[in-house]
Design a protein that fits this description.
This protein is α/β, with parallel strands linked by helices. About 35% of the residues lie in helices and about 15% in strands. It starts with 7 loop residues before the first strand and ends in a 5-residue tail after the last helix.
Length: about 240
């Protein structure tokens, strides 16, 4: 836990085609931390749209971001366009190097991997991209939230809320995290047991895999290139 009188600079990477709940789920939690400032940073300050068209606006550019205490890297289909973008990858490396905590949600893990930051780390990501983690030298762990040192990894999409609550407890203590959870009335009772590949009906899983087959194949091709650049051999 970080001393309550220590002000926290929290920042999220914002990019075209991210999945908004990878961003807004954690924002709902982390923006409520006491004695903290939360800002969004993009390559420019122009508005972006998430994968379904929701418009979001960065507070500042990557170049204008201060050294962050907490770096949050969301995912989404737009992650693929940044996998070999050295401006973004260098920013992630620099910010992660000085941060107290790094928080990856969904396929944000692939961006962290492309930046060369996952070698030897236990990590998770969205189920459709989970098999790509070894290309970045990560140790895949099929759990909703993984804590590895000062890194927190959340699996797909809504897992970002769970990961953010875990991170909130690490930063400001469990009582603060529990109070935020209560304010949010976060007590999920999903109407269906279909939220993981293990619990979803086989036909639904197959349909869902087919729906993301194109982006998954593209991600795998990129992951192989990046892995080769990082000197990581995967059978």
């Amino acid at each position: 836990m970080i001393a309550p009188d220590t002000h926290l600079q929290i920042g999220s990477l914002l990019f075209e085609g991210l999945d908004q709940i990878d961003l807004t789920g954690p924002f709902e939690v982390l923006s409520r931390l006491p004695n903290a400032t939360y800002r969004l940073y993009g390559k420019t300050t122009a508005p972006i749209r998430d994968v379904k068209g929701l418009q979001l606006v960065p507070d500042a550019t990557l170049a204008d971001a201060p050294p962050l205490d907490v770096l949050h890297v969301p995912g989404g289909f737009g992650q693929e366009a940044l996998m070999e973008d050295e401006e973004v990858l260098d920013w992630i490396r620099r910010q992660a190097g000085g941060a107290q905590s790094v928080f990856s949600v969904c396929t944000g893990a692939l961006l962290c991997g492309a930046a060369g930051l996952l070698k030897g780390r236990r990590a998770t990501t969205h189920w459709a991209s989970f098999h790509l983690l070894p290309f970045f030298g990560a140790i895949p762990v099929n759990e909703r939230v993984i804590v590895d040192g000062n890194w927190v990894f959340a699996a797909g999409v809504t897992a970002g809320i769970d990961g953010a609550l875990r991170l909130a407890a690490e930063l400001r203590g469990e009582d603060v995290a529990k109070s935020i959870q209560l304010y949010m009335a976060y007590a999920p009772e999903p109407p269906f047991d279909s939220g993981t590949p293990e619990s979803a009906p086989p036909a639904i899983l197959q349909q869902s895999r087919q729906a993301v087959a194109g982006i998954t194949a593209q991600r795998e091709a990129t992951a192989r290139r990046v892995g080769a650049r990082l000197g990581i051999a995967v059978a």
